[in-house]
Amino acid sequence: MTVTVVPLELEMFESLPSHTRRCVFWEMDRDEPDGFESGIVDRRSTAEHESEFDKEAWISGLLLEWGTCGQVAFESSTGRVVGSALYAPPGLVPRARRFPTAPVGSDAVLLSAVSTEPGFEEISVTLIDAVVSDIVRRGVRAIEAFGFSGSREPLERDLVGLMLGNGIDTDACLECLMQTNLLIDSGFETVAADLYLPRLRLELDEGLGWKSAVERALEKLVVEAAADLSGAPTPVG
Which secondary-structure segment (H or E) carries 107? Predict the structure, then answer.
């Protein structure tokens, strides 16, 4: 099984799995009368927690205003989408304000969701790595995410549903939350503890910032090796 991860483009929207394409748990807050502040989403369909129109509008607006906001995993042999990760400035993710461990740091990008199709759960880390690579290149200091540390027992589902606001089906809610252990395994650290919904952070200027330095060093070595072979002087800098 070979999987390729590429940045999300609007043309890929129709290929996304149904839940990813339709769920607006993160992107809309039904209890906010004006929608989210940037006006990217036209709140014409708020009766349900699923709206393919609003999800596409949110992604389209982000791509235009902010740039890449997702990573998509394709199964190479079939071209089928088997996973995705979505991320954005926290001010453009209305549901984030509902979490008991909010707000997200102003210097961070919010990783809102990582989802995979059955049988492809192991690519979650690969998707997060792709997000990190993109954010590092863009010079952002950190990535934050809300984890879910509970279970799918009815009492805990109901409790989490109450925490995050009315009108959202708790099963759909949990489907949109990342397991805390996945984030910890990917290098995130808890910065705001909670029994069920901790907020975690991955610093990009410490621990992962070295990747850029290594890449620059390797590029310099390649240039020097090419210069040695050609006899030309090595560029400085």
Answer: none
Domain that holds residue 225: 211-237
> Which of the residues in the chain have pLDDT under 70?
30-48, 151-163, 165-173, 206-237
How many other C-beta atoms are found inside a 10 Å radius of the C-beta of residue 172?
A: 16
Looking at the structure, tell me whether residues 169 and 217 fall in a common domain.
no
Classify residue 231 by its DSSP letter: T
- pLDDT at residue number 47: 43
Q: Helix (H, G, I), strand (E, B), or coil: what is residue 226?
A: helix
Cα gap 13→21, rounded to integer Å: 7
229 token code pair: 């072979």
Domain match, 174 and 231 both: no
Q: How far is the C-alpha of 30 from the C-alpha of 161, rounded, in Å? A: 13
Residue 215 and residue 158 in one domain: no
Q: Are 124 and 116 in contact (CB under 8 A)?
A: yes
In DSSP terms, which residues pair with 84 in a beta bridge? 72, 115
Domain count, the chain: 2
Tokens of 21: 């394409």
Looking at the structure, tell me whether residues 230 and 130 fall in a common domain: no
